[in-house]
Write a structure and sequence with these properties.
- This protein has seven helices and seven strands; from the N terminus they run E-H-E-H-E-H-E-H-H-E-H-E-E-H.
- About 20% of the residues are buried.
Length: about 180
């Protein structure tokens, strides 16, 4: 299966960003291009959309071949049209997982795209985004250096590490027979 042109439609939600990271990874592994689009209503001329789309594209990759576009129209239909017009091989999009009355009232863009797309569609559920957020390890709190007790992000601060290394080098030069052995 050819995966050279990959489309990532985004509404800037966490679910969309989880799909964007997956789309980026697939495009990178396949040596393909990533199309990042945002679909807006025809009357929407917000300059913030361009800034937000640029921010998302940079967050995904600055090295991957990428095209960005703000396209106007009905969301599901416009995504499908873009895929046809640009010979897209795969669409990767997030889903919000709406059910019941909210789905009946708002509809499901992902469902429409899956039914009408000219290529395979990979949907990424919103739960993946929340799992990713929980899986990211917290940043370590600075703790006292074991040698000098100054706060450091490491067990031994860079100053003490350098001092210990230089002392070991001097000891090894003075006593070549004991190289690597404790003093």
């Amino acid at each position: 299966m050819r995966l050279k042109e990959i489309l990532f439609p985004t509404d800037f939600s966490p679910a969309a960003m989880a799909a964007g990271r997956l789309a980026r990874d697939i495009a990178a592994q396949a040596g393909g291009h990533l199309h990042v689009i945002n679909v807006v209503a025809p009357a929407n001329d917000s300059p913030q959309l361009v800034e937000e789309l640029t921010r998302v594209a940079k967050a995904l990759s600055e090295t991957l071949g990428m095209k960005t576009a703000i396209v106007r129209g009905q969301t599901g239909k416009t995504i499908v049209e873009y895929a046809r017009d640009h010979e897209i091989d795969l669409i990767v999009m997030g889903t919000h997982g709406r059910t019941g009355i909210t789905r009946a009232l708002l509809g499901s863009v992902a469902e429409m795209v899956v039914r009408l797309a000219p290529c395979p569609v990979l949907t990424v559920p919103a739960s993946i985004a929340s799992e990713e957020a929980r899986a990211e390890p917290p940043l370590p709190e600075p703790s006292p250096c074991l040698a000098c007790r100054k706060l450091s992000d490491d067990l031994i601060c860079p100053d003490c590490r350098e001092r210990i290394r230089s002392e070991a080098l001097v000891r090894d030069e003075e006593h070549p027979d004991h190289r690597g052995l404790p003093a």
